[in-house]
Amino acid sequence: MTPQVVLVHGIRTSATMWRSQVEHLTSRGIAVTAVNLPGHGTRMAEPFTLEEAFRTVDTAVREAAERGPVLLAGHSMGGLLSLEYVGSEDPPPVAALIAASCTSLPRGAALLTYRALAGAFDRLPDRGRWLTERVLAATIPIENRADFAAGGYALDAQSVVLRSLSTLDLMAAVRRIQAPLWFVNGQFDQLRAHETLFRRLAPHAELIVVPRTSHLVTAMRPRVFNAVLDLALATLDAREA
């Protein structure tokens, strides 16, 4: 059976952030689904809830699993949700997981810092859009620079998303994951805070640190992240053989 890929985006952005990965996988003949979570992208008008977010991921995974083994990949918020989902007590049909830019427990000082920064951006005249665009222009290759904003910025969902993520029991979930697992972080990613803890919770996981890269690893180094997808798919092929 042909491997299937499901992609879960990060906070504020949408499925459009995965354009480079979707193009790469499609060129290889790999079926890929990039979901939009509630309150984001094409579902911007919907309220964000963890229940609906997990339902969205689960629906995409189970539909894909009917066609072949599923590689699930999530970035930032999407990575945290994917870790919680795959590490549930009743494991879903996920054959392998890539968790990018999310080795930080969403609570305590890290969460307070992120919420303070988000609040500061929100109080700017344009809710921080101008500054966000300047950061993207300085760090993201021009060929995929527009992908993060193409589906719109889910600014109104940020607060409830952050509160919701703080309720996840990630330590228990990561400890339960048995599927092949890759943690992918940019060298300068601020969400590497608990990287050592995550590796201890999942000793079978592989850690890939991408040099000269910050939090937006999928966009700053799309070819590198595509190579990680290829590695995970090759691992699935080897297990199926």
Question: What would your notes on this structure say?
Answer:
The structure is a single chain. The chain has 241 residues and is α/β, with parallel strands linked by helices. The protein has ten helices and six strands. Strands 2-1-3-4-5-6 form a six-stranded parallel sheet, with helices on both faces.
Q: In summary, what is this structure?
A:
The chain has 241 residues and is α/β, with parallel strands linked by helices.
Fold topology:
Blueprint: E1 4-8, H1 19-27, E2 31-35, H2 50-65, E3 70-75, H3 77-86, E4 96-100, H4 108-122, H5 129-139, H6 158-165, H7 170-176, E5 181-186, H8 195-201, E6 206-210, H9 217-220, H10 222-240
Parallel strand pairs: 1-2, 1-3, 3-4, 4-5, 5-6
Q: Strand arrangement, largest sheet?
A: 2-1-3-4-5-6
Average pLDDT figure: 91
Query: Structural class of the helix and strand makeup?
Result: alpha/beta
Termini distance?
10 Å
Rg, Å, rounded: 17 Å
For the sheet with most strands, the description reads: 6 strands, parallel
Can you write the helix and strand succession as a string? EHEHEHEHHHHEHEHH
Helical content stands at 40-55%
Stretches where pLDDT is under 50 for at least 5 consecutive residues are: none
Fraction of residues in β-strands: 5-15%
Query: How many DSSP-defined strands?
Result: 6
Which outline best applies? globular
Labels describing this entry:
241 residues; alpha/beta; six-stranded parallel β-sheet; 44% helix; globular
